[in-house]
Amino acid sequence: MNHKIGNLFKGDKVIWMVLFMLCMISVVEVFSASSNLTYKSNNYIMPIVKHSATIIVGVFIAIVTVKIQCRYFKLATPFLIVLSFFTLLWVLFAGETINGANRVIEIAGQTFQPSEIAKGTMVLASAQILSAMQTDRGTTDKKAMRFILILLAPFVLLIGKENLSTAALLCFVIFLMMVIGRVPMVQLGKLLGVVVLCASLAVGAVMALGNDEPQENPNLTKTEEVASKAETKSSNVGKLQRLGTWKGRIRKFLDNKEVAPKDYDLDKDAQVAHANIAIVTSNIIGKGPGNSVERDFLAQAFSDFIYAIIIEEMGIGGAILVVFLYIVLLFRTARIANRCENNFPAFLAMGLALLLVVQAVFNMLVAVGLAPVTGQPLPLISKGGTSTIINCAYIGMILSISRSAKRKVSDKQETDSGETPAVVVA
């Protein structure tokens, strides 16, 4: 029985344990944080049944992906690039709107988020470029950065039009991959300077061109005020409507003015306020799973702000446990990458791990108020469809690489000892 289970869950056992623990936390916390969904649908079990089914599908995808040899990931890259590009165009012009932005497309009644596949595709392509352009001096050819940026630019523009935080996350991960891939530091320094300059100009443009939220007029009745806001909103059709959202988030994050509790506008800053309340009322030890109060007030309690709910219910210990699991994932992947004889699987494994861990860090920083609201879910924990399944596929790719890395290390050790290499089952 144990042998059959071992054959099913191949690859690095520690990463498998991390995946299962994150999935278990996800089931418990999403069930607790989905009170709004259960209330609206008047069905208290269906949301968690759907989420559990999504996780089961994701784990199945991970099991299947583990069995795929690393070289096939490389062969699939051109097809994934074409698929990602056209689906991003599709979602831009004919996508379904979520939170005021076109982010998903609907196929056979199921929503699909192309940006999730596009992120992994860019990591895959960047790993190939970096590995193919390594020099005898132990560095990467100077042309590698140019090729990566040319390939990355159109995808970042397509993603950033409706989801700036995801585009920024992808750029940051690719930059870290170029650091790991030994791109000359002079080039990286110049790139960083250009990025800082462009980011400063972009922030200035957002603050100058973004639409302010309509101010309340005490002379208007409630009905007239709602009509005024609706008219303002309709007049902005055709403009870059996301600029107003970005402007509001930047202002809220940069505003360090202390506000007395009685003067705090819970309607305007509800997410941040209730996330802070959830963390403060955890009383260090937490209220226990299923006992959250703020889940009923947080609009994205099961997604963007689920880390705040974890702290409220599981306390500081639960918060540290979640952080620890992502750290283990990153360092365990680094160990796998260090054992790889070839550069491509090593760069790919680190890129995928960074993609998951950096996104997790962004989500947690937002939840505790150390970063502006980005709308990034917590990987493998937040409620999601496409994101959960794709993230499990990323884990499967890392596990596939761990299998080949173990086999090569074992074969090399046996060859050095004078024995005939045997097939090692990881």
Question: What would you say this structure looks like, in words?
Answer:
The protein is mainly alpha-helical and 426 residues long. It has helices at 2-8, 13-33, 35-41, 46-66, 70-94, 114-132, 143-162, 164-180, 185-209, 222-235, 242-254, 270-280, 306-339, 343-367, 386-416, and strands at 96-98, 101-107, 110-112. Strands 1-2-3 form a three-stranded antiparallel sheet, covered by helices on one side. A hairpin with a 2-residue loop joins strand 2 (101-107) and strand 3. Helix 5 crosses helix 6, helix 7 packs antiparallel against helix 8 (164-180) and helix 12 packs across helix 13. The longest helix is centred in the last third of the chain and has 34 residues, at 306-339. It is globular, with a radius of gyration of 23 Å. It starts with a helix and ends in a 10-residue tail after the last helix. 36% of the residues are buried. Residues 214-239 and 419-426 have low confidence and may be disordered.
